[in-house]
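Our working data are protein records whose layout never changes between entries. An example says more than a description, so a record of this kind follows.
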Amino acid sequence: MEIVSDFDGTIVGIDLVEYLLNRYAGGDWRRFDDLYEKGEISLEECLRQQYGMIREPRQKLLDAVDDVAAFRDGLDELIDFSRKKRVSFTIASAGLDFVIIHLLRRKNLENQITVLAPKSKPTLHGIVLDFSYLPRGNSLNFKCNVVRSVKAKGTRVAYIGDGLSDFDAIKEADVRFTIKGSRLAEQCRKDGIVCHQVVSLQEVTGHLSDRRAHSRGDTGA
């Protein structure tokens, strides 16, 4: 099994992308969310347009997230579980890679979790994104490609997420976790996709521990 998780709003309690866009975007970034949700643009194009509106230096962005970012309860237990059981732990995120790595370093976790996110470079003309480092495929977005690339190796996937950009990925997962009350949880409910709704990551550890103990699998509850 491999654990694949979103970062913003999932591993950390706040959506850091939305926080930074609200503070620093020089334009109406929400209209690109609307276009993405309507299926008129891809997730990748949505992110390119939105991040292109942020023209602040890297350190200013890092200082800003340091003031608000807190890891969700239970992360240490989940990482300890993955290490002891030799379960790979991967972050598949639409967030800023240098922000994610910076926050993981605060907890000395940068070498325990693989980060798959677009490479992001702050410039005077906005943040430039490079998706070429991410798994390729014919999915609707790179998060789904990450899940499919793991499953193609014959490995089961437990996915954790909270946002609509996680929807296609979580549908592909073998075991599904959504943050309780999130937009992803509501969309899965509407579409009849069975998921575990959790508040803490310790709940994820408990579910996965039970599954390994009983050597049985399913796709949700």
About this structure: The domain at 2-14+70-214 is CATH 3.40.50.1000 (Rossmann fold). The first strand starts at residue 2 and ends at 5.
